[in-house]
Amino acid sequence: MPRTSRLFALLAVLAVSLVPLGAAQAKDNFRVCWSIYAGWMPWSYAESSGIMKKWADKYDISVDLVQINDYIESVNQYTSGNMDGCAITNMDTLTIPAASGVDSTALIVNDYSDGNDGIILKNADSLADIKGRQVNLVQFSVSHYFLARALESVGLSERDINTVNTSDADMVGIYANDDVDAVVTWNPQLQAIDAMPNSNLVYTSHEIPREILDMLVVNTQTLKDNPDFGKAMVGAWYEVMQHIAEGDEDALAAMAEAAGTDVAGYKQQLEATHLYTDPAEAAKLMNSQELLDTMQRIAEFSFKHGLLGPAAPGPDFVGIESPAGVYGNASNVMMRFDPSFTENYAESQ
Asked: What global pTM score does this model have?
């Protein structure tokens, strides 16, 4: 799923160092970026349908939803301060902006991958057959974490395979190459590769529910200074969720077209996506100890792979705060889960 090479993370750190601390302030114009992924296509519809404008107008602000084709580039744009918010996974929020010193808040948990991420092999129909292979994936992204979890399930580790860093934009094209026989990716690329000859989907994120989270992350100081920004984003999101929950074919068709597929194909992707159409359900997860435990597991993986930066002495270097408590350094909280905006929206309905 969308979602980083160490080089990109280090470049983000350098970019952040150029942004003056405390620069956030009250304002009325905001930019939020997103990239192509089944669970984030509602942002496309929020823009094209006028729903985002309606909610922004309600609070006398403007919000520009910016589509960026390369997921990692979108995260870097947010981390460098060019965007006020971004559609990011939970792991990449920790390892890029938070690890770079950008205090970031998960404003909305949009969904979790429930089959949208997967491992495909050639000439094999068992995950155990991945042993000894080169595996193409977006290295050090959430796909890498997903691969590590999959390997554990069959008694293997990363020592048993070799990873090859591959852009999500190139994944479909390279699968036809004779020297590529294992890929880890997310939809819509996963769906496209699975339809190709000699492809076997051997493991999906359905096996690890509520671990790969797709979120809307915003700058914490910006949110603090501009709470109406948070209210507008949450309101727009859940209005689109209502369209999806009601099976609005026109809305689904618009999202499918923006994703480069048809309605049937998009519905297939949604079947592997647990969208939080009910704000109360999303708030429950954000309040849970389970979420904090998942983030600890991700932090440990990230530290093991050097993704928390050269200064990190351990996996608890970056503090992660939720209503359930704080994992890591309470004096260095750079990643937060704030369910209050979602809860307030649910109560208002």
From this structure: 0.86
